[in-house]
Structures are given as C-alpha cells and as structure tokens.
Sequence to fold (639 residues):
Amino acid sequence: NVANGQAAAAGQPVAISTTGPAVTINVANGQAGAEGQTLTATGPAVIVSTITVTTSTTGQAVAISRIGDETLIGPPIPTTITLASLNEINEAAATISHAIATSSSPGGAAAILATDNSGLLHLRSLIADEIAGDLTPDQTDTRNIGSITSLWRTAYISEMQATLFAKNTASLIGGLFIIPHNAGTLAADVSNSTTQIDFGQPMTTGDIILLRGLLQVEYMQIGTAVTGTTYNVTRNLDGSGVNTWPAGQAFAVLGTSGDGRIELDAQTGQPRISILEQGTIYNSQVEKVRIGALNGWGSLTGNGIAIGDPTGERITYDPTNGLIIAGDGNGITNINGGNIQANTVTATQINVSNLSAISANLGTITAGTITGATIRTAATGARVQMDTSGIFGTNGTTEQWRADNTTGKFTAGNGYLNIDENGLTLTPRTSTPDFSFTPQSLKWANGTTTKAMIEFAEIVDHGTSRKLVMGMQGDTRKAELRFTWDNVSGIEYAALDASLISLIADETSVSGDLNVTGSYKKENTTGHIYVPFRTGPVQPTGWAGTSKTSGTYTLTAADLGVPSNAAAIAIQIGITGGTTGNSLAIGYASYVDAIFAQIQSGLTIAFASGVTNLDTSGQITASVSGTINCYIRIIGYYI
Fold:
C-alpha cells in the first residue's frame, strides 16, 4: 500500500509521491541496513518483478538493485533528451526526464561539451586540421597564443602586423637586421623586363629601393607614378643584372640623399649597430654612428662607439685610445656649457680670451716648470714661438730667425746670417752685391752712417794666401772690390758706381757660363757676343748642294744649329747649276739685311757671305729664284 502510488493494473509503472507517509520497500538485494541509510543502486536501471512495501520503519530509505530483466518500475525512457532535461518523473504524463552532465571547461577530463551562458568554451587541448574562418579573441590584449613554457614550433604566416610591448622576451635574428627608411612587399609578380612595378603602397619619386633574396639582389630607383601604387622604375642600378621577383617579395626603401637607416650586423663575428646616411647613388652611404666592433671605422679597432667623421669632427671611444673628442678640423674641440672636471688635462694648446677666463689664483710665479708642446705669442701671423725644436720668430709667412734646440745654431735674416760652432757666416742674398740689404754686410757705422763694410759675395780662393777685401774708398765710387794676394805685386779690383760695374784687370776669365739678362755694352754702345763654331761650320740638312726650285723656305734656329735666343748668324751661301739671273737670298722680314748670291752672265756659280739677323722667333727665310743647287754654311752666331 503506497499512498497515491497504487498501480492501476499489472505492469503499470508506479509513481511514488512525496506527499504521502514514509514508505518502506522490501526489495531482494536492496534491504536497507539501517534506518535513514541511503542505498545506491549497484547497477544500471533496476528492473524488479516483485515489490513488497511495508511501513514498519518510518523514514527508512530504499535502494533498488537489479535482479533480472523484468518489469521496469516507472514510465518508459524518453526518445528525446535535451540539455534542459531534469531528473524528473511526471506521474500525470507518465514520462521521465534525465539531465545531461556537460561542461564548458572540462580541463583534462572527458566530458560532453557545452558553451556557458556567454557562449564560451574552454578546452585544455584542441586538435583541428583546418579552421574555416577568422580566429578572433573575445577581448583585446587579454588572450595569448602559447606561453613562455609552451612554444609553437613553426608559424607560416603571409603577413603579420603586431603592436608589442614585451618583457623577458628573446628574439633571434640571423646575421643582418636592417631598419630602413621604409619597407613593403611587392603586390604582384615582377618579370626581368618590366619597368612598371606595383609596390602595393605609395612611394616617393627618387627613392632607392633594395630587393634581396632567392640568391639574388637588385637595386632600383622610383620614377614617376603610373597609376595607384604602380610606378616607373630604373632597374639594375648595381649592374648585377635584372632579376625576376615574386609577389610578396619584401623590399627595403633606402630613400635618397640625406635619408638614413639602422643596421644590426653580426655576420662576421664582429657585431655592431650602425646608423647610415644614404647618398645620391645606390651604393653611396656614410656611416654616422657605430656601436660595437669598430674595425674598419677609420683606424680604430676593438669594441667601442664612434660618432661623426673618421677623419674630421668625431667622438670616439675604443680600448686603445680611450675617449676622444676631435674638433672642427682646425684642431678646436667645442664643448658648450657646463663644467669639465678631470684630474689631469693634457693639451697641445689652450686658448682663452684673457687670463681671467681661467678660474684660478695664479699668485706670483717664482719657480716651476711650464710643460707643453707649443708656447707662442699668437696663434697665427707674426709671432714668437717656442716648442721642442727651439725658439723662432716669423712674420707669418717666412721664418726670420731661429735658435735651434738640437744643433745650437742661430739663424737670422731669413737664413742669411748663421752663427754656430764654425763661427759667423753671412750668405749673400744675390750674386750681385746690393748694399741696401743689411744681412749681406758686416758694417762699421758712426751712428746711422755706414763708414765701412765687408760685403760677402761668393769668394773663390785661388791660393792659400789670397783673400777678398771689400770696403769704402773715396767719394767718387760707392764701393770697391779688392783682390789682394801676398808676395805678388798688383791689384785687381772692380769699381761699383751708381749704375756701372767696371772690371779693371789685365785679363778677366769666366769659368762656366756667363749669363747676362741685359745687353753687352762698350762705350755705352749696345752689342752682342759672337760665338764661332771652332770645330767647323754647321750645314743645315737639305742645303748641301741640294736642288731647289723657285720659292721661299723657312729655317729655324734648330735647323741652323744655333741657340733659340741667338740674335744673328754668320753665314756663307753658294749656288751652282743655274742660268743667268738665278739667285738665293737669306734674311728675314723684307730681306733688308739679306745675304744675296746671283749667277752672272757667262758663269754657273755664285757665292756670298755675311751676317744676317734672325727674327724674334729665331728664324730666317731663304728665297730661291729658278732651279739651282744651294749651299748654306753657318760659321758662328751672335747672342
């Protein structure tokens, strides 16, 4: 007897209501061991054939166990189970519902998956061959792909854009890393013949770009725009050949003159960071900054930092030289503002506008040592300067005097006065004495008036007892050269008047060349020196009896065998084989001073000789009348 639970007919399921009194059901293998004990069925859904229910013990729980394939207690199992099904027996409808155990975050356990109320599904692991659609996180800057301990091995991504601020992240880049002026990828394939390329982005006319890959390299320059992102280009700037490039090929925009890029290079085992400025042509760039291996940057080696021009203004640090601040090319290093503090400052030169610019109490300098490479009264121009070589004075162009620290020699007068261990040496300024130049003379003066002097010109010693004496003599001559010698009577001298040098001697000999820039004069008459050909006359080529026809012929100084500055020649001419009236004239200009030979009636030969002038170019002209055999001989010349 079960309250509200009596089966209406045999085999009909019985619903047990919770509104009745406590029920005790005696089931084979399912007797409760104690009051209030919950019995759990030991198998699947229980089917029993006989149920005996007593109410001898109030509140006793009953466990029903299977004893065979008999009648199922309750209504039949529903054909449709939904996620919203509950564990419920509907007595009125004679139905039974079952809940499904699902999870949206099962972790490592097996489970039936179902999203949570927000539509989310959290899986510990997912294996999928393909994803047809976008993979988008539910929140920005919240979800991750992989972790610091679980890394993706390989990612094949055509294009990636990322905004990254990361800590404790290691990135490995092999060899060379370039941050150029700009970069991009080709929007379409590029053949080795096209001159119009789609870069997939706006470009700047004149920019130089670099493509590298597929075991090839090519530099290009952007020309005018064609349409959209397609531009005319100038290819193969590097001369290595025009290449074929696929769509998606990356390119670096190096820019044009003044643009820059950053390079991180560790290919050679000498890692460095360089900042380079692009030049006007593809392979022209200037390295403005280098950090790391300095080999190749000027003469520096080792690791350090270099900024500026290796041969000009620069700041460098390397293990060998330490910190160097090089100046503006004039030896000046400018440091604007602030203070420079150091234990020791060593400098070639310290320039200040005045001593008060040096903040120090110099006091009275009574002893000590001034150490420096150069001490001078002015940086440029006229000055007195002392350095390790000695002390000297200069007018800014020529060194006027010097006391040499190495030889002990004193030099003055632009090198014409020398005092050393050999005594006093005066070197003449010119080969012709000029008394207006004080360094040439050793003078005796009365106040400002010179009374006597010894003028030092070149002295040739003709014997151990001979000497040169020079001095003042009388009022009629400005000075006098006297050559005297012991035990020999007579005096040779040259009197020097204001505009005339008179050589008075039985014989004057010149050893070597006698060079005269003006004219030779005798009794104030201009003249020239005659130089004879002592070894025999000179016969010009083609004028030794050679047949000549009517016409004019030019002979140069070289043809005549005389110097180019010869003024005139002594010449002999002859003609043979002609007829009466045939002639030869040698001269210049209008033949005013020509040497003329003409065959007379009844004769077949004619001769003439004399002196004829050369023109300013050192040439003469031979004028031939008729067909004759001509002879020319030069026996000397005037210079």
Summary: Residues 176-261 form a domain with the Thrombin, subunit H fold (CATH 2.40.10). The chain has one helix and 43 strands. Helices lie at 557-560.
